[in-house]
Amino acid sequence: MTEDRLAGVPPVAARITTSFPREYLINPSPRLRGEVRRGASHCLDSPSRPPPQAREVKNRIFQTFPRRDHCADGFTLVELLIVVAIIAILATIAYPSYREHLQKTRRADCEGAMLEMAGALERHYTENNTYAGFQLGTGKDFVDQCPRDPNESATYNLTLPTANASNFTIKAAPTGAQTGDRCGTLTLDESLAKGIESAASGVTAKDCW
After folding, report:
1. Mind listing the pLDDT tens digit for each residue in 24-57?
2. Do residues 101 and 94 make contact, with C-beta atoms less than 8 angstroms apart?
3. Which residues have C-beta within 8 Å of that of residue 111, sequence separation ≥ 6?
4. What DSSP element (H or E) covers 171?
5. What sign does the dihedral 80-85-88-90 (CA atoms) show?
6. Roughly what angle, to the nearest 10 degrees, separates helices 30-41 and 11-18?
7. What residues are paired with 194 via a beta bridge?
């Protein structure tokens, strides 16, 4: 604050005014300067301990010219790295479980379709006295994929490698999104015996059906 700005201001008032940030008092109003003078007049007898009136003037000045916080809100780099690390850990734990849940759901859906296909084969046998001649494909005796809707992407391919006068074997080989399923190929025969082929080590039919 320049000297001309403090011209005519009592020494105590000068000490009060110079204790504030410069930008607060560059262009003080006459009313404000009057309040500073009146407040300072009570401090002349005891400049080291200003009376309540002087403190009131100081409070008014702060209320008139509030301090501004120039700190911008936001994230620090360390906070951002911590969040990224937490997300990575959660993804590492959750994604395999989520993927296994989806595979289990698709597997159960195809197992239901295989049981329906076995029922269709039995009806074919009742009409023809043989399982032979049963055809798979769109518009035929039964669809050749799971899910059964041909407009959806196949997760299992259905085949009928064995279909004779007295026996049949249905197989469902994983494909598409189901590729790599630990249960491998699902099998079902005329006695409704459930099995698996090319499964992961230690996996049994009971684990998959």
Report:
1. 445 555 655 565 555 555 444 445 555 666 667 6
2. no
3. 172, 186, 194, 209
4. strand 168-174
5. negative
6. 120
7. 188
